[in-house]
Each structure stands twice: as C-alpha cells, then as structure tokens.
Specification:
2 copies of one chain form a homodimer.
Chain A: H1 7-21, H2 28-35, H3 39-46, H4 49-58, H5 62-72, H6 77-93, H7 101-108, H8 116-137, H9 143-163, H10 169-181
Helix pairs in contact in A: 1-2, 1-4, 3-4, 4-8, 5-6, 5-8, 6-8, 6-9, 6-10, 7-8, 8-9, 9-10
Chain A binds a DNA duplex through helix 3.
Organism (chains A, B): Microbispora rosea
Protein name (chains A, B): Transcriptional regulator, TetR family
Pfam family, one (chains A, B): TetR_N
DNA sequence: AATTAGATAGACCGATTGATCTACTGTCAA
DNA sequence: TTGACAGTAGATCAATCGGTCTATCTAATT
C-alpha cells in the first residue's frame, strides 16, 4: 500500500490546489480540511499562512515545466520557443485554467512585505534567463531584450485568456514570437 | 466655493482609488471613511460592495483614456497604435502603478457570479473593437486577429510591469506592435 | 407649515478570518 | 521504562468582514 505523504507535503499539495482554484484568499480552514492535517502542523512547518503561500510558489516547479516542454520539442531553439506557445494554447484552453498563479498572487497580495512577492520575482527572473538562453543559441542580436518580449507575450497570453475565453491568445502570441525569433541573423 | 459631490460620487471616487491601491479586498469601512459617507448610502445606491465594485469598473472610463491618447497622436493609424504603447510605458513607470485594474479584479474575484466579471469582459471587448478599427483603417488583412495580438501585448505589458519593475516591458511590446502593423499591405 | 426623501451616525449582527493555546496520542530511540 | 518529539483534535481568541437596523437630521417639495 502507498504510504501517504507527511503533513508538510499534504499541506503544500492542498494549498497549491486551493490557492489556484479559489485564489490566495482561500481560508486556512479549507486548506487544513483538504490536507487532513492538524491546525498546529501548519504553523509548525510554515510559521503561518503567508509562509505556506510563499512556499507553494517557491516549490511549484513552474520553471521545470517550461524546461520539460522545450526539451520535448527537441534541440532547435526556434522549435523550443514556439513549443512554449503551443503548450500555452493547450493550458489556456482547459476549463480549469484560472490564469497565472504568480501574476494572480502579485496582484492579489497588496502588502509589499508579503514573502510571496520575492518568489514571484524569482520565478520571472528565472523564466527570463531561460528564454534569453534560447535566443542566445538562436543567434539573436539582443537576447535580453528579446526575452523581455517573450515574457510580455507569455504574461499577456495568461492574463488575456482569463478575460476573453474564446480568444485563443496563445495563437496570436505565437505569431509574434516568430517575429522575435526573426530578429536573429 | 466648490460644492462637493453627492454621496454616490464620493463613494465611487473613494472606491476607485482604494480598490486600486489596496485591491478589491479593501474593507467597506475604509471606503466609507475616505468617502465620508454614511454606511447606509452605500447599500442604498449600490446594493452592496459587489455592486459598488462593479460600478467602479463600469464607470471607470478606461476606454475613453485610450481614445484620448490615440486622438492626441493624430490621424495616422500607425502613430495612434504606437502612441498607446508610449503611454503604457509612462503609466507603468509611475510609482503608484499597481497593474491593470480589470485584470486584477478578474484574478482576485474567484466567484464567477460576481457582477464585476461582466464589466471586465465588456471593457476588453471594447478595447478589442477600438484596436481592430485602427487596424482596419491601416489596411490590415485580418483586423480581428491583429487586435488579438495587440490586446495580448497590452495585457502583457500591464501584467509584466508589476512583477519586473525595471524591465520597461512597454518598450519591448512597442517593437512587436510594429510587427503587427507591418502585416498591413 | 406639513410632508417626504435622502443622508447621517452608529449600534449591532452573525459569520469568518488567522492565530494561539491546552490536552492527548502514537512512535521511536536511549 | 522513560523521555523526546511530531502530529492530532479542538477549544478559544481578538479582529475583521459585509450587511442590517433604528433613530435623527436636513433640505426640498407641496
């Protein structure tokens, strides 16, 4: 039989799911209930709700998913970048799609002192490095600026898909990503 | 001496400011205090907090601001579209910038029944029509698809600027907007 | 002058929030 | 056997939430 994970993992799993489907405003009680964990364990492991939310973002592995999608697309930088937008089209078409978890956290948590903000920034910086590396391999004359453009496109797709469900923004963005790639020599 | 606006206007002004600076999670009490209005007036005029929030979005005049920026740029559709991104660069560079109020509302308010969602959608649709009209005048072969691209860029700029303050995403997006315009015959 | 509608002030409500606390249980190692 | 420790269960806390209520005041209408 499968041993179920410890309280810490169960808390992270429950929080990851509920803070996405219901937003970070979800109550601690709901998380505790779904995790089937004692109240005290939460404060023992994460210090409080804020710490739990931050750890959810930190341990989310969002960057790994981007890497995986690109790796499955092969070696060609161009194909690897475009594969990201194909994947975005699939993600944003799912009924359970509720936007980018990082952007949502950033916009929802107004308090600048919230530990989640640092995690959001770290994620975006990591994604920027990821994209810049691809553009460098592709011979792009300004990989940093190009990565900025790709990030705008990615964030734009994830933000826009929430408000206009039928728009398929990833397809629109994919064509612009090709324009970014076309800047290479 | 200037007669101060009625309770309804004061409520809208206070709510517009506070829901932006502190998010829609801001308490009713804070809005009432800043508006210097009796509690009852809020429920008399708007039925509740949800109604007030929705009316803030509806009466925000965000579309008018886009129109004004484009009108100030003259008649040429190309200049009018690019002026939008110049303006976005200015807006996102302000210290008080806290993201797109509509996107934030959409991501924060999880309840699908919240009346704000309809206002968000109406705004984005209006913006889409605005951009499509410019592309049509510019001779774009597919104004609707082109407007989709411009909206992704706009949403991307507003979303990305929140998480990476120094990135100047509007400048990156402006170059891509030129690519959209270049599709015209 | 009488009536009426809108606004104000503020008490009050039940529900929920995040967090702390005590008491108890099970496990493993010394 | 003892002790340490992590986890559980649940009472409890103060604060805050959105919303309803009564009572009073004011200004325009009739």
């Amino acid at each position: 039989m499968t041993t179920r994970p410890g309280p810490r993992e169960r808390l992270l799993d429950a929080a990851r799911e509920l803070t996405y489907s219901q937003g970070v405003q979800v109550g601690v009680d709901a998380i505790l209930k779904q995790a089937d964990v004692a109240r005290r364990s939460l404060y023992q492991h994460f210090g409080g709700k804020d710490g739990l939310v931050a750890e959810v973002l930190r341990s989310d592995g969002g960057l790994d998913r981007y890497r995986q999608v690109m790796n499955e697309a092969g070696d060609d930088p161009r194909e690897r970048v475009l594969a990201v937008f194909d994947e975005l089209d699939a993600i944003t078409s799912q009924p359970a799609f509720r936007g980018c978890r990082y952007t949502a956290a950033e916009l929802t948590l107004t308090d600048p002192a919230h530990p989640a903000h640092a995690e959001v920034r770290a994620f975006k910086e990591g994604l920027h490095r990821l994209m810049a590396a691809e553009l460098t391999r592709h011979g792009h004359p300004a990989p940093d600026a190009g990565a900025d453009q790709l990030l705008v496109l990615i964030d734009g797709v994830l933000a826009h898909a929430v408000t206009r469900p039928g728009a398929r923004p990833a397809l629109a963005a994919r064509a612009l990503a090709e324009a970014v790639l076309a800047a290479s020599k």
